[in-house]
């Protein structure tokens, strides 16, 4: 069987801060309220997404990699990760602020949790007029000053708060304190990890448990990067019908694509799977004379075996392109 572009059935996650934009803006179909996350492509144990289309329908990514190996992920990726898929792709909808948190790097995550670390990237898809995020520190901070402010309940005095709007991009490396604010809908690209150290959660009570959510400050303290940086936002070009650099890191490569005309994308030099996250509009993707429609809020994975992708557009379509 020839491999083909793969769509997956999202996994929807209740969150205390979840809202309505996954349903109203991205047209996701699910039951329940306060759904805060749509896991689009996941190999996290216990939360493996299933293929939605074609002959491989119903199989997990791990099962497919086990069968097709480097033809799915690429030679170098398979040598590094074996049958595990290295990335987790999500949409996140925050009706209320998320907890202030931090993620460990690979070394700490492996020693403590037998997991990958969590370096991630945010592409803002929608934001209310006054929407904000927390990212990093305003000024270089000492750990004792941080602990004092945390104990006093004044941690926000130290943190860098930024207004955000549609099409903003932020890289959140392991160790950077961060939080998504209310009114933000974003696409998140991250390592395959579900390890989060919660630092502060506004003393909220989770209606499902009747209790405050657990904090992890004993684990967070030696993970945090206390440095301040001159800029936290990623700037990028928007040249039409070509890949514009977003975040290129050891953990993933991401580019912005604005398609305004039919385009042939050649991935023969990319020894990796390629993922498209449609963040605006819609497009048709033609591979081996088969057409696949990709709408805003949908994600598709091209196996490494596929080297030529024809893009057919009738209007403007924006895509975040991801590979290793």
Care to give the gist of this entry?
This protein folds into two domains: 8-220, Jelly Rolls (Sandwich); 244-323, Jelly Rolls (Sandwich), CATH 2.60.120.10.
Explain the overall architecture:
- With 324 residues, the protein is mainly β.
- The protein folds into two domains: 8-220, Jelly Rolls; 244-323, Jelly Rolls (Sandwich), CATH 2.60.120.
- Helices cover 14% and strands 40% of the residues.
- The mean pLDDT is 96.
Principal-axis shape: globular
- The parts where pLDDT drops under 50 for at least 5 residues are none
How many E strands? Answer: 26
Strand content: 35-45%
Q: Please give the CATH architecture of the largest domain.
A: Sandwich
């Amino acid at each position: 069987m020839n491999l083909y572009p793969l769509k997956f059935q999202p996994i929807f996650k209740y969150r205390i801060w979840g809202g309505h934009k996954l349903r109203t803006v991205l047209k996701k179909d699910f039951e329940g309220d306060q759904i805060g996350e749509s896991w689009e492509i996941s190999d996290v144990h216990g939360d493996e997404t299933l293929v939605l289309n074609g002959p491989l329908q119903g199989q997990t990514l791990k099962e497919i990699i086990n069968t097709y190996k480097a033809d799915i992920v690429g030679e170098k990726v398979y040598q590094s990760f074996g049958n595990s898929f290295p990335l987790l792709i999500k949409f996140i909808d925050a009706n209320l602020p998320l907890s202030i948190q931090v993620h460990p790097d690979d070394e700490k995550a492996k020693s403590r949790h037998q997991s990958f670390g969590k370096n991630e990237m945010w592409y803002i898809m929608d934001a209310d007029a006054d929407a904000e995020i927390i990212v990093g520190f305003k000024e270089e901070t000492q750990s004792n000053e941080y602990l004092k402010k945390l104990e006093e309940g004044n941690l926000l005095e130290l943190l860098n708060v930024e207004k955000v709007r549609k099409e903003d991009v932020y890289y959140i490396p392991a160790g950077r304190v961060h939080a998504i604010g209310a009114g933000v809908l974003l696409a998140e690209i991250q390592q395959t990890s579900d390890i989060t150290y919660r630092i502060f959660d506004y003393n909220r009570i989770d209606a499902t448990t009747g209790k405050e959510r657990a904090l992890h400050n004993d684990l967070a303290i030696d993970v945090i990067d206390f440095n301040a940086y001159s800029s936290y936002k990623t700037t990028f070009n928007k040249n039409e019908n070509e890949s514009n650099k977003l975040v290129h890191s050891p953990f993933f490569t991401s580019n912005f694509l604005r398609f305004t005309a039919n385009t042939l994308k050649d991935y023969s030099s990319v020894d990796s799977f390629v993922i498209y996250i449609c963040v605006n509009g819609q497009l048709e993707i033609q591979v081996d004379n088969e057409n696949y429609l990709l709408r805003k809020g949908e994600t598709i994975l091209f196996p490494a075996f596929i080297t030529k992708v024809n893009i057919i557009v009738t209007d403007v379509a924006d895509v975040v392109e991801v590979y290793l």
